[in-house]
Amino acid sequence: MEKKSIRIGQAVTDYYFGGGLKQLATVTDKRHTVVLTDENLYGIYEKQLKGWKTIVLPPGEAHKQQSTVDGVMNQLIGAEADRKSTLVGLGGGVITDLAGYIGATYLRGIRVGFIPGSLLAMVDASIGGKNGVDVGVYKNLVGTIRQPSFLLFDAALLQSLPENEWQNGFAEIIKHACIKDAAMFRELEATDIAGYRKNKKALAALLRRNALLKTKVVQKDETEQGDRKLLNFGHTLAHALENLFQLSHGEAVAIGMAYASEISASELGFRQAERVKRVIAQYGLPTKLSFDPDPVFDILKHDKKRERDSLHYILLERIGKGVVHTLPLTTVKKIIEQIS
Amino acid sequence: MEKKSIRIGQAVTDYYFGGGLKQLATVTDKRHTVVLTDENLYGIYEKQLKGWKTIVLPPGEAHKQQSTVDGVMNQLIGAEADRKSTLVGLGGGVITDLAGYIGATYLRGIRVGFIPGSLLAMVDASIGGKNGVDVGVYKNLVGTIRQPSFLLFDAALLQSLPENEWQNGFAEIIKHACIKDAAMFRELEATDIAGYRKNKKALAALLRRNALLKTKVVQKDETEQGDRKLLNFGHTLAHALENLFQLSHGEAVAIGMAYASEISASELGFRQAERVKRVIAQYGLPTKLSFDPDPVFDILKHDKKRERDSLHYILLERIGKGVVHTLPLTTVKKIIEQIS
């Protein structure tokens, strides 16, 4: 197991690569640790979790809300968790967001670690310290930014994931390649999901590369004043589409990236929109959606990244180089109308 | 109005002394500000709050809980508060604790300012960034440590306070004098509450002195690893007594300080316990309580500052010099049994 300690802001996070769930006991003291997980993961890893204090939640984004947090707080009190306790989130983005938020506020902050349980969580959601819960239709309306004390990556947890979970993860991996890493983009072009599933070594290297890529972006800009905004590539439109249509996050981001590539072509002379769309399709993700632009733009008007009548939109200058661009809402609308 | 900008950790807080509520508009943009207050203060200052967006809560510690937070979150959404908004807490410790916590988590943190509305809040509760809510019998179980962007001190807000609120505030002022400021202790010996109520200039200077004294302690030790612990002088026993008996916070702290002075005499040869008790009595506060030690020690056993069978207890070496002392619970119990 490789250990890498990385400072983000005032905090230091220990990254453990190439290890497994069974190494958790070497990273945190069993007697003073509570593991927060969901029924799905608990069902699969019950044996390995034997002897650990666990809090098991029903799975799904619907439970990412304050009432769940309140319930977990009471279970922590019941488990006599104190200032020396560690809360470990074992699961996908919902679990790591909840564990991060609960750990940031219980007793004004206890030690938190994550064992991301999905590809998306490994390469994206578990990294960067953003946590929180949804309030009604508003995603992550309440939360904090606080780095975990450790991240334990166990690639074996991916084996049980269904295909669409792999696609969700690869949407973010393609995003990372587009905004920051042309060499990784070429690697992605040369293979596909089945290829990575078969080649454990290549998969482990890909996980590590993406976790560290996102970490580096966050490290430079924890509070999203600059570079961290690039991670929103494909996401501005995706959030609106996810709100309106039955799409997975990966599908929505994929469509958002495809459209952002087209807007990059029209606004910045970006010439490789076709390559971006080809790689998106190669990982089983959509590049197009027919929709009525009006309701989508009603939502974009309320986007958190909006300033008056303009949006901070992430575009590509070239593959591997994302840029923040301020675009009038009317321009975005015109281009999207032309595409759809 | 005097402005003083003070860095604590990564944050800078602007302190405004000698101003008033009506200067709020010079400190924050009215259009992008929401004022959180309680019915008592709103009743008194309704006129001055005209034109400000306000959220008004019922008064009292009973409302310092998550369900209140949830309600305020929804009101902030309704008021279209966004990342550029400021939340101002106008009130005593309950309001500043709620406003600090809500502001730390709404949209993962918006700008927060406090206008402390009680003497206790001015010299203590509003300073240092600790915020939160109670969970059942557990005080401040959930919260964060996050510094406000500004503190606006309006001594005129004190005029409407009842006598027991003045006593609550002076308990913390006496505490500050005991642990850090022998000169202020002598000033306190030379006057009383009636004296400060009459002498506005001396009162304003006392407020400023105490706000800056606490700030300096917090500045050195935001997360309570060392010096900040001194602020618990009188508070370990006080928390237990408050739980069991109908005492105000000031009364409980006063008794706690008197007993801690006796323990200081017995453990450290502190010779001025009588002077401490005299000044406590001079400000209308009790120095003694008859109680059965057993239930009190059951609570002390669960104190957050406990480590195994010892307590971090704050004692006095001399007036103006508090020290952290590790005492076996049995020793504390024996001394308190002798006194009571």
From TrEMBL, chains A, B:
Entry annotated with the keyword Amino-acid biosynthesis: no
SUPFAM superfamilies reported for this sequence: Dehydroquinate synthase-like
EC number: 4.2.3.4
Boundaries of every 3-dehydroquinate synthase C-terminal domain copy: 169-305
Top-tier EC class: lyase
Origin superkingdom: Bacteria
Gene3D superfamilies: 3.40.50.1970, Dehydroquinate synthase-like - alpha domain
A single GO cellular-component term on record: cytoplasm
Annotated InterPro entries: Dehydroquinate_synthase, DHQ_synth_AroB, DHQ_synth_fam, DHQS/DOIS_N, DHQS_C
Keywords, comma-separated and alphabetical: Cobalt, Lyase, Metal-binding, NAD, Nucleotide-binding, Zinc
UniProt KW Transport keyword: no
Domain called 3-dehydroquinate synthase N-terminal: residue spans: 55-167
Protein function: Catalyzes the conversion of 3-deoxy-D-arabino-heptulosonate 7-phosphate (DAHP) to dehydroquinate (DHQ).
PANTHER family from the UniProt entry: 3-DEHYDROQUINATE SYNTHASE
Stated name of the protein: 3-dehydroquinate synthase
Organism of this sequence: Flavihumibacter petaseus NBRC 106054
Lineage start: Bacteria, Pseudomonadati, Bacteroidota, Chitinophagia, Chitinophagales
Name of the gene this protein is made from: aroB
